[in-house]
Amino acid sequence: MGPHGVKYGGSVAGLPRQGTERMARKPASMYRRLKGQAYTRRQYTGGVPNNRILQFHVGNRIAAEKGEFEISLSLLADESCQIRHSALEAARVISNSTIRTAAGPQGYALRIRVYPHHILRENKQATGAGADRVSQGMRCAFGKNVGTAARVKHGQKIITIQTSPAYFAEAKDALRKASMKVPTPCTTIVDHGHEHLKGLV
Prior knowledge:
Layout: E1 22-23, E2 57-59, H1 61-66, E3 71-77, E4 81-84, H2 85-103, E5 108-112, E6 118-122, E7 126-127, E8 144-152, E9 157-163, H3 168-179, E10 186-192
Antiparallel strand pairs: 1-7, 2-5, 3-9, 3-10, 4-8, 5-9, 6-8
Helix pairs in contact: 2-3
């Protein structure tokens, strides 16, 4: 018993006990390279985390399906990689917020062109004080499911934005911000509507 009535080795004011082990989330850079065969068969895999992407097609979807928007821009991956579902959702949120502020809710349409099929596995290791005594497990273990990722090839489209020529600069900036959320260099191209962009490109 200590001088303040607290047992030695216990917790003080909600602080963690010395020697507490916790599971650290590994950096996404460990999963961005394409290695081996895709692991996608969910019917044989239990406990796959839910997809973080809330919507794959946002904005004025009816006008986009009818082809009423004059221009279309796409974000292309310059390298083959894996993009985690959380990174895709972050790219969707920032790009959607940027173009929505300029064009309004009915002045654009944004679509995510890839889907996170690949299941990521991780051999979890405990970290923290005293964790070296409990984390000596089998090397190259199969691991548990920690998330999903989309396998993207070189030159594949990740995000497409359709809008009017008046918001071309905002759409291009939205894709530029989205490219910062994915683990590969990206290029923005104009799919169609070059004739409406004279003096803007």
